[in-house]
Model the fold of this input.
Amino acid sequence: MIEIKIKKIYEDAILPKYSKEGDAAMDVFAQNMTRTDKYIEYGTGLSFELPKGYVMLVFPRSSVSNKDLMMKNSVGVLDSGYRGELKLRFQNNGNDIYKIGERVGQIMVLPYPEIKIEEVDELNDSERGNGGFGSTGS
Done:
């Protein structure tokens, strides 16, 4: 188990929580909303301090399919060095949106490896090769 430090930006901000035992991701809640002609942005009222070597991934909830919303960046990435408010930005396609206080997304914290890049002239062969979209079957 890892410990994550969370700072409430607003006193009534709701801490992330698991909905069910065994869930991989915790729900986050809308604390405020900014609406423009291009998007709706929900602030969670929370900022995080992740340990070095960890990343927070921010996903839409499955309930977004029942709303007129689509998360603008598909999956958000909150790096360990970021200390600002966690916000989720959605494309607004109508009037059925999340309300303040509702669950607007889910977060998962994962370790990540440090990668060393090695440039080469050739790559080893593989079964798939350079087959792209749909190359493994229908």
Q: What stands out?
A: The chain has a mean pLDDT of 91. The radius of gyration is 19 Å. The chain has one domain: 5-111. Residues 5-111 form a domain with the Deoxyuridine 5'-Triphosphate Nucleotidohydrolase; Chain A fold (CATH 2.70.40.10).
